[in-house]
Design a protein that fits this description.
The chain is an alpha/beta fold. The chain is built from seven helices and five strands; from the N terminus they run αβαβααβαβαβα. It is globular and about 50 Å long.
Amino acid sequence: MPATSSRRCVLCDRRGLHYSQERITVCTAGHREGLERLRALGWKRLNLSLSLNAASDAVRDRIMPINRRTPLAELQRLMIAYPQRRNFTLGVNYCLMPGINDAPADAVAVADFCRPLGRVLVNLIPYNPGHAPLTRAPHEEEVTAFIAALRAEGLAVRRRVTKGRSIMAACGQLGDAALRLRRSAAPSVPSPPQTPTAENHTP
């Protein structure tokens, strides 16, 4: 939290980048102590998004171990208590993983989790397999069907456009260890010799 606080001060300071708080979003996995401290700072215009990714404790425990410290019921209570302005919209990030969290019952569970939270926008993110994938990437029709199921439950949904998957640069792929090893093993390309110019010529 000290690092978050100091970065916010730099970003919003008139002598720095001078961003308004409305342009800054803090994303949380559900750290209870951090959320309580963040709310206590009283930054009413700051945006918040939650990486949910599963709406059952059994699945979220598996893919997000922090859930064992802050289970969904406690996380929901924290999200209900967080808003400090009337027009606050909570972003709920949901990474769609085939065979793990994409069943119709999962869409219902997401809606049940979000219903008491006030205004919510679900950001649906198709899963991008990395160097140790949990599952495959979802097919287009699977993404479309899950979005439709969420909207049928009354949720506002926005789909995250997938970019960079083929070069391991998409969301969730940036820590690819195998790619780093391949790059480090590749021979380096020597820089071309510098051509003498009038500026670097000494008579």
